[in-house]
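Please predict the structure of the following assembly.
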Amino acid sequence: MGRMNVLALLEMAAPVESPDDGVRAIAAAKAGDLAVFERLMRQHERLVLMTAARLLGKLEDAQDASQEVFLRLYRNLGKIGAMQNLPGWLYRVTLNVCHDMTRKRPASVAVDEMPELAATGADPQQSAARAERRRALLMSLRFLSEKERAAMVLRDLEGLSTEEVARALGSSEATVRSQISKARIKVRAFMERYFRSNI
Amino acid sequence: MNCQEWEERIALYAAGDAGAADAGETERHIAACAGCQVFWSELKQSLEWLREAHQEEIAPAHYAAVRARVMAQLESGRAPWWKQVWVYGVGIAAVAVVLMAVRPHAEPPRVAMVMPATVERARDAGQGAGSRPGGLPPREVGRRKRLPHRQAEIILVKLETDNPDVVIYWIAEKKGD
């Protein structure tokens, strides 16, 4: 990873904050301190943009979704009690915003416009193989139902527990487990077919 | 139970989502079934690739672009205080007028349109029931005298409130017809 990217990632990294700091930050942002709100955005932008990119499959759409999520956050700062609730709230709103966007403009299956990745400086052959896998993987996500995709993105990519996924999706844990297992089976089947036909 | 029925359980087991009892059973089945062993290893491989893809980062510039768009939108929604003052001023004046109009037991303000020509005539003649010495005649509504075409016409409106110390005059100029 290049020095510039390391520096950029360090800049993006959230500072360690106590719960009190978090409450104060939300209160200050609510009172109209835009600098504090920008800091809040920096702390959670990865969560929102990455999730939106995985769900929508197109960076441009994911950026639109992220913008809407943060504007909703600003308008609803009064309803968010503490920082501990913020990630859960952001996941829920990101899912809702992406759902609305998918209904308005159905996601395309094209994967050429997937998120542009930061340069990793790896061996070109390895990078090509990884890019190919990634392309197939993202394509496979397009073939899942919206709920299956959301459950898989949150559980397998974002690393949320089944309980947290259920809360974000507003469904039961049993339903989430069923959606996750179906999604994993479909992705495996897609990957197997994709690489068998591309070898 | 055939192998297709095991798939969902294996899919949960592969990422640690199966309960303890289910996990034991699934493990035993995988150990005994070659087809399910292949399915399990392929599924695990797919999940590893998924996580690997997740470790890759979106370029920082894309985050910055979102941040800039949000901040621009929030800042555009805020006008500086000096641009908002007139809004408050108009609001306060409107509230004051409404309060005056709906005050219980208050006499409705009396409005009289007084023509300067009539005022002058009344003063000169020293008559007029409501005329006050040295002041404008209250509530005298004069018949409008036809002025020559395009000549400026002064309209004086007198607003009497229930407070005898408060009288409001409104002077306007009307040009031509």
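Residues 173-198 of chain A form the longest helix (26 residues). Chain A has two domains: 18-106, 124-199.
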